[in-house]
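Explain this one:

_____
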Amino acid sequence: MAPIWLFDLDNTLHDASRAVFGRLNVSMTDYIEQHLDLPRDEADRLRMHYWRRYGATLLGLERHHGIRAAHFLAQTHVLPGLEGQLHMPKVDRAALARLPGRKFLLTNAPADYAKRVLTALDLVSCFEGVIAIEGMRVFGDLRPKPDARMLRVVLARHRLPASQCVLVEDTVANLKSARRLGLRTVWMQHYLQGNPHGPEAGVSLHGRPPWVCARIKKLRALHAWHAGRA
């Protein structure tokens, strides 16, 4: 039976450390400075505090300051000229297109940004659907990855059996919660070497945690891994 692939976006399909994360940090600090009327250094500290506490700055802003998620996401992800900074190896693009099975994008990024990146990388036709942060609410609360409750709801909503699903992404915490639900997990490490931004900054890339089924550095390696399991 062909697998159902759930792909992360940033630092999995393209080099977001180089093109996106630094700019997003600046735009989020700008937003906090402006809308919470804070000094720049305090706004930056608050951004980092909520990111470390909740795994996403937005969650802290929504819970403690009444910031509307849609407004925050729209304002912080404008990123003029983004398309010209995106990079994905052509061989990985071709490998993704040839990979057997259904494919969905599962990203903590907003839908407009995700579709913009997919369009710029010529990947829109590879995916059956895009599951972005707007679709990650559980009983009204925003629950982005690695929240297992959200993942369970998303799988049920799209009628995706966990046993057939494979999550491919760069963040090991997200893989851990997915594995607990019965998904197979692939840790994409291509863009993590020397990564100064994102949740995996400074993480050791040696060894394989028990909740990771495979480690890869190129998307084309998924073909051999899948063939070995068939």
Observations:
- The CA atoms of residues 4 and 160 lie 8 Å apart.
